[in-house]
UniProtKB/TrEMBL annotation:
SUPFAM superfamilies: P-loop containing nucleoside triphosphate hydrolases
Matching InterPro entries: Helicase_C-like (IPR001650), P-loop_NTPase (IPR027417)
Domain Helicase C-terminal: 71-170
Name this polypeptide is given: Suppressor of the cold-sensitive snRNP biogenesis mutant brr1-1
Stored Pfam families: Helicase_C
Organism this protein belongs to: Asterophora parasitica
Amino acid sequence: MRRDVQEIFRATPHHKQVMMFSATLAKEIRATCKKFMANPLEIFVDDETKLTLHGLQQHYVKLEEAGKNRKLNDLLDTLEFNQVVIFVKSVARAIELDKLLVSCNFPSISIHSGLQQEERINRYTAFKAFEKRILVATDIFGRGIDVERVNIVINYDCPPDADSYLHRVG
């Protein structure tokens, strides 16, 4: 479990109620989570095999690496969108793609683990306030984030697993 979660736990009163919620929770994380709780109760809303995102239209295009930038540019020029989140696999890729989009006059910003937490929060706040319409992000942005105006999510790079995909598009 991340050190910051442990620090928060230790800084709070000894007698407290602890609840954790997640659309997905890896089996190896469950045991760690239980260390923070007394008599934990797990509630499963649905069987993992039935997990779908209702009302979501999904499309995919299989491309060679060399064709991704051109296709992304075409999509952003063609699609009508409020805000878009584009997920990539690395910090370097996020920086590179954001620079490319800005050079093509797209209102883009990036969020990734290469930024200090304060800067990530500032960029998230700017995006949520509709100051930028395109966000290039690594999976650091995939969990627990809600931006009401986002109506398109693009997986520029495929997520590593089904849980990551669910958090990205959900």
